[in-house]
Amino acid sequence: MPTNTGSSDVRVVFTPSGKRGHFPIGTPILHAAQALGVDVDSVCGGRGLCGRCQVVHATGNFPKHHINSKSENISSISETEKVYAAKPKKTLLDGRRLSCATQILGDCVIDIPPDSQVHQQIVRKEADAFDIEIIPPVQLHYVEVWEPNMHDPSGDLRRLREALEREWHLTNLRFGPGMLLSLQKELREGDWKVTVAVDYLGQVIAVNPGFKESLCGLAVDVGSTTVAAHLCNLRTGEVLASAGMMNPQIRFGEDLMSRVSYVMMHPDGDAEMTKVIRETINELAENVAAKANRKLDEIVEVTFVGNPIMHHLLLGINPIELGGAPFALATDESVRIRARDLKLNLHTNTRCYVLPCIAGHVGADTAGMILSEAPHKREAITLLVDIGTNAEIVLGNKERLLAASSPTGPAFEGAQITCGQRAAPGAIERVRIDQKTLEPKFKVIGCDLWSDESGFSKQTKKTGITGICERIIKEGRTFSYILHDGEQKIHISQNDVRAIQLAKAALYAGIRLLMERLDIESVDRIRLAGAFGNHIEPKFAMILGLIPDCNLKQVSSAGNAAGTGARIALLNHESRNEIEEVVRHVEKVETAVESNFQQHFVNAMAFPNKIDKFPKLAKEVQLPAENMNGNIYDIDVPAPKRRRRKKANL
Ligand code: FES
To answer: How far apart are the C-alpha atoms of 187 and 279, rounded to whole Å?
Structure first.
């Protein structure tokens, strides 16, 4: 403990925390840091094995601290440090010292580098995104257990508990019954030296013979189309490997409702879909573990996000109630479950955390998006939109947060579009059409060049179409626009335009409802998430009337926000409490029962909108002239289809 008396005491200041205290000469720096509650990592308990406790002795005069931190004020390089630095794959960078093997000899200033702190920060590259603070859900503790002898006949478990208390002050730990089966073997294999993994709830997850360096966790985003997994180092947050696979449930139904429909018509349909999604996760886990050269049983923690139907199927819950009003969830709370109960082939004690759902159509993926984007921490009114077959919408700020889903249908994912396809290499992702000549140029996924640039592979081949009349062709009673007339003819029909109109109108109507509920006419910032949100340029999303008017500089892509949310929940266990609390206060808006939805939908069929103005957008681009009704582009619209609203139609 720090002391304040004694003439032989010296002063120590730790940076960047600024924590300070007086200690007797000869105190190891690590002890001083721990006594002051300074954030310094350690797995080996000060034995010079782990190298986590590295610090830098800041030398010189520090008037602010009234300290002259001379180089001789700490002990010289110790034998322990030399042995550590000589080990393969170990590094003691220039100027760094092992704090457990270095003593304080005089007043000094000690800096704790970011990578020696338990609570590290991951700086996110996305503009305007909060950094991720790492508060690992599972930590490693190396201990040396006293061997049994004829005079001390206590059990191995008792002596392991005593070692954890003696060396780490860990008490009341829970050892599952399964741990006992292998404990004696592990202790003897490690010659009574073991590294114990303990989670933040005091549950012992694993006892590893000998010294163990690090553990991994898996963050999984279970989408209805694709499933993505990220293997992370639980200490540093580093993504060690990532992999994605198509969700094999697609064979039971392309979209979510057709999967619920499958369950309705096949008594064991839910069990079949649960089985295949779990197999996929096992396959992904094997894949990422192999890529990162890790063993499957090193994965000790898993987090999941997914929409309500994926959430239920993953957990083995029949999703039938989500197929019709009132769309009741089995639970809207977070779920903590053992991996083995989900039939995942990971460590026998691996725990899974499934983020909470918000409402029948607004799932754990939206909770992940909120965790990642943190609108609840901002003053600015933020609109988050995850665009897919169903669009999830979150609107609000630190005062109030609303959420809804809008039935956009599969048009944004390429279905129902004549030449549409999913986002995959070779798919056209951007098109620009010259307003005068109607000549197009386009970009495909997997190639950085525009189609009119040299080197655009075969697709640079001229289509042979040059005139306006040749681009627009009559098809029965409607017209189509020929985008490309190569080996594969790609055209956009009037029905395609209509499908996009219906989809974007459903999304916008949902957004408008939330704005109405919040009593606002504009939003401060917009973040577009999901695969579609990542590919569309904000300007064109707004021209389309997909999102409301906003300063274009404040509209950006949020990447895979749901997946990032899963990663945050994996790396920072306190974020789980945070999202559970936020979700409890999110106001759910059910678009199906809102009387204004229909009117907003009809207005939103126009480009960008029949009623709503886009003054900020108009400053950036020249919008088409308004017609006599004040509409930018108005068409007759059919009554909107309220998908997913009747059980009978599923
Ligand atoms: S605490 Fe492990 S090397 Fe210092």
So the answer is: 33
